[in-house]
Amino acid sequence: MANILPKLPFERILKKVGAKRVSQEALEELATVMEDRLITVAKEASELAKHAGRKTLIAEDIRLSRKKP
Hints:
Elements: H1 8-16, H2 24-51, H3 59-67
């Protein structure tokens, strides 16, 4: 899957936690991992909203979907 998230925020995060340098491949891999997780959370949140009879996602849907393994 092509990464849709920008790489610079991931580089900032990695440097904030102590990385001195970050390769482009590492940034791409982290972006891929995070996008996969975000898609999973979004799908689960959407299902929770549908189950509740809503068309609108709310913060609670996101919070609940984050807690799933």
